[in-house]
Design brief:
Layout lengths: L8 H14 L14 H25 L3 H27 L11 H11 L3 H29 L3 H27 L4
Helix pairs in contact: 1-4, 1-5, 2-3, 2-4, 2-5, 3-6, 5-6
């Protein structure tokens, strides 16, 4: 009888996030459908909240100065992004989304909190690459075709920030030697 090896839940979550980011093999031929305005606002808030909480953990756990510097920038930039989103939502007459993470983000954060040392740094960097890829896809989609002008403008400026964060996260991830 063949024994099937169990895959730890955090690895499955990362794999699911990666698949959802790719959106299929022929992603270039697909036209992305922008999220609805409330869904965009919720996704942006959840992303910012996850980034801030994960970065706070990185400041508490990591001894790697590059990781710590990156984490502080995530706190600073995503705190500002949350405030900008709040202002844009108010200007558009929308309710502010709750400051909460998705269940998948909460699970990723929980898996990160159980790690120490190099394992923490590598996992944090890997999660940051995945989270910023997903956030960038949402922001770019809404920036190109979103219905609300205030949030579309916010998504355009956010996309530039997220792309910069993604570039930094990819560099740290590569330099830490995590595959």
């Amino acid at each position: 009888m063949t024994r099937i090896r169990s895959i730890p839940r955090p690895h499955l979550l990362l794999a699911a996030a990666f698949v959802s980011i790719l959106g299929g093999c022929d992603a270039a031929a697909q036209t992305p459908i922008p999220p609805s305005t409330p869904d965009f606002a919720l996704a942006a808030t959840q992303s910012d909240q996850y980034e801030i909480l994960a970065a706070q953990d990185a400041l508490a756990q990591s001894h790697n100065q590059r990781v710590r510097t990156f984490a502080q920038q995530m706190i600073d930039d995503h705190t500002g992004a949350m405030e900008n989103l709040r202002k844009a939502a108010v200007a558009s007459g929308l309710p502010q989304p709750p400051q909460a993470m998705s269940s998948d983000q909460a699970a990723l954060l929980a898996s990160l909190q159980s790690l120490r040392g190099d394992a923490f740094d590598k996992t944090y960097a890997r999660q940051q690459v995945l989270a910023h890829r997903q956030a960038l896809a949402v922001a770019e989609s809404y920036a190109s075709s979103g219905k609300d002008a205030n949030l579309r403008k916010l998504a355009q400026s956010s996309a530039a920030m997220i792309k910069h964060h993604l570039d930094m996260a990819e560099k740290i991830h590569t330099d830490l030697g995590d595959s």
